[in-house]
């Protein structure tokens, strides 16, 4: 049976987010027509968010103590929170029952959908079991996910490690490694080689709280780099020359106290930059919050911010026929109420969605 719907309103059209008044036609989940036409609708039809880096497994430990409090100031310790294998996150994940882990991830997935996200990528800890838990959490939701697993047995023999990685890659889209300082570089190279042979993605954190692991991460020829908060211009030139996309996590970097990623320099170097909310234990999955921060604190132009948080995630994650609102693309759109108490009277929808948009402005999400 053919499913068809027509949406009227102000449309953020195409790769440049051209603001037009008109309608879009969706047949069986595909955009078949976009046309300009006068309309009385106050709705805004926009591309959905792509949350390009998450850890939804740690949904089981939301908002932990971040460090020692001294004179009303919290001395934050990123390593004690998330560094494998003994960081707080990993200790909690190790003792969390499987059913509780799955249930907590379901809540985060639903929260993503409700806040306008149509696709996300997740770095899943816990080896093959972690990947299978994510599959189970996603079973009833129509949201695209790129799953990047990692082995549990990092001190196993080469053959045992290879077998574990191969098993993970049977059910995952690739590997998402913690960082080049967290494992022996030869082990990482072996893991990387398995991913490349399987034609799967190899992604890795780099330069989050120190640039000491950036060069080693680059030596692995990764497909995606996460953070690069401490990268200098020489690092960024190498990243740009190798055509490696970067996913930044602004709120996460602030709450862990590692600073601000050099986003302006990344863009100036020609790097493709997408955005993620990172660990659910530290931040909600609300991409509106990332946009407001990038606009008001980083000082980035609003259109660029919106592109990074929506359109750019699709090519970075390898999502096919996704991203901009154009004919023949998948219909992954959010419909916002331009007459809400928050958005009523706005003159520039892109500026306003980026600076003041909220989940409660969303009328519907089509994914």
TrEMBL record:
Gene3D superfamilies: Metal-dependent hydrolases, Urease, subunit C, domain 1. GO terms for molecular function: hydrolase activity, acting on carbon-nitrogen (but not peptide) bonds. Residues 44-360 form the Amidohydrolase-related domain. It holds the Pfam family Amidohydro_1. The lineage of its organism: Archaea, Methanobacteriati, Methanobacteriota, Stenosarchaea group, Methanomicrobia. Keywords: Hydrolase. This is Chlorohydrolase. InterPro entries: Amidohydro-rel (IPR006680), Metal-dep_hydrolase_composite (IPR011059), Metal_Hydrolase (IPR032466), MTA/SAH_deaminase (IPR050287). Coiled coil: none annotated.
């Amino acid at each position: 049976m053919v499913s068809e719907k027509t949406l009227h309103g102000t449309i953020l059209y195409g790769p440049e987010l051209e603001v037009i008044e008109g309608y879009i036609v969706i047949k069986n989940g595909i955009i078949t027509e976009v046309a300009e036409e006068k309309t009385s609708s106050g709705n805004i039809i926009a591309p959905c968010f792509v949350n390009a880096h998450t850890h939804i497994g740690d949904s089981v430990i939301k908002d932990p103590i971040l460090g020692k409090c001294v004179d009303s100031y919290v001395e934050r310790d990123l390593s004690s929170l998330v560094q494998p294998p003994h960081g707080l996150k990993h200790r909690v994940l190790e003792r969390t029952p499987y059913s509780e882990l799955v249930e907590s991830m379901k809540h985060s997935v639903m929260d993503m959908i409700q806040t306008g996200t149509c696709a996300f990528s997740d770095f899943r800890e816990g080896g093959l079991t972690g990947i299978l838990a994510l599959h189970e959490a996603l079973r009833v939701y129509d949201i695209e996910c790129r799953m990047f697993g990692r082995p549990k047995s990092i001190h196993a023999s080469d053959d045992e490690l290879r077998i574990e990685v191969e098993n993970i890659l049977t059910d995952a889209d690739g590997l998402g490694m913690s960082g080049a300082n967290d494992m022996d570089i030869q082990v990482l190279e072996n893991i990387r080689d398995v991913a490349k042979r399987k034609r799967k993605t190899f992604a890795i954190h780099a330069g989050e709280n120190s640039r000491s692991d950036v060069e080693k991460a680059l030596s692995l020829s990764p497909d995606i780099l996460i953070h690069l908060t401490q990268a200098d211009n020489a690092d960024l030139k190498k990243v740009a020359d190798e055509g490696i996309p970067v996913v930044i996590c602004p709120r996460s970097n602030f709450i862990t106290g590692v600073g601000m990623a050099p986003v302006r320099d990344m863009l100036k170097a020609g790097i493709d930059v997408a955005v993620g909310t990172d660990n659910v234990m530290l931040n909600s999955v609300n991409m509106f919050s990332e946009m407001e921060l990038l606009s008001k604190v980083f000082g980035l132009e609003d259109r660029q911010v919106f592109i990074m948080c929506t359109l750019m995630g699709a090519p970075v994650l390898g999502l096919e026929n996704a991203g901009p609102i154009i004919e023949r693309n998948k219909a992954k759109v959010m419909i916002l109420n331009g007459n809400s108490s928050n958005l009523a009277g706005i003159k520039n929808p892109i500026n306003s969605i980026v600076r003041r948009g909220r989940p409660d402005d969303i009328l519907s999400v089509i994914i």
